[in-house]
């Protein structure tokens, strides 16, 4: 039976894994080929440039439970590419779920708040019981306002926690989860004194707050902390001089920038082989794996086996590689299909969506918090020239 995870009743071993794998109606996730890296998640909207022609609304599936899916299908650049891949993944989830009782109402928001408002209104008028999307933070409030007025929950794909809450839940890769996992792991291996170098931008601000809280929770101390803009050298010199008192150095930025920061630290006299390097899921990048200075560094990320399996099935169905965020749309559709089958009239209520035991998806365990943010069960990966290698698996259940 497809159901949320029940820590108390799950048997151990293979039967438990089978139950977890069925929660979202997805096949158990083995290893296939194909991998993409996570990009910096703090994009506020689509790339500048001409948008494509508006995509016509589409209904997929014949189930009785109507589900809105709002994506920037006609947006310019990478946003439109990501939206198409996420739409494909949503349809794939519907096809792989056994007899789903849902119908997807797919709406194009063109990457704008106005488009999100129009698409959401259409979906609600057509009877949508829950809205999946939008992708961009700037579009979420427009969708949320309309959905709240109807008492309808929203599962958005934004990585900006400030747009969550009051019926809006974020199914995305939030940097807070990465930070908590890697700091807890480092503390568990005896690291007590931390240094950090972060970008002076929106992503860096979120990571800074999470990092300081996580280190404090573990009774650690921060011996050096600097943020940088275009000039990384000054901050790198300051941190390099303080590394003698640190057990671990946390660098959180996208792959290209992490390599540049590591090179700046080395130029400032730091011997990065003498300290444990820590990072976030943005380290899952070929540039990082190729950097001599970052070898042996640890970062938190979803277990890659799930995405490899998903990519193989996606490739076979669509003849192309999925974007990394395609799994979010897959998991969202599989989740609502599972809840529609098992949870009756309360299927999309806050009580059901915030089940503390969580759900299992392509990228492992996740659960929604009451404030609309999410928590993920992440693996700890080690940087090697051959890619990321797991050193600690993702958890099979959440703690209390």
Query: Element order, helices and strands?
Result: HEEHEHEHEEHEHEHEHEHEHHHEEEEE
CATH architecture of the largest domain: 3-Layer(aba) Sandwich
Let me know the CATH homologous superfamily of the largest domain: Response regulator
Biggest sheet overview: 7 strands, mixed
- Per DSSP, the total helix count is 12
Distance between the termini: 24 Å
Q: What portion of the residues fall into strands of 2 or more residues?
A: 15-25%
Could you tell me the CATH topology label of the largest domain. Rossmann fold
Label the structural class.
Answer: alpha/beta
What is the average per-residue confidence, as pLDDT, rounded to a whole number?
A: 89
Q: Can you tell me the residue ranges where pLDDT is under 50 for at least 5 consecutive residues? A: 1-35
The tally of beta strands, per DSSP, is: 16
Level-1 CATH class name of the largest domain: Alpha Beta
Q: Tell me roughly what share of residues is in helical segments.
A: 25-40%
Number of structurally distinct domains = 2
Q: Please state the overall shape, judged from the principal axes of the Cα atoms.
A: elongated
Round the Cα radius of gyration to an integer and report it: 21 Å
Q: Trace the largest sheet across and list its strands.
A: 8-7-9-10-11-15-16
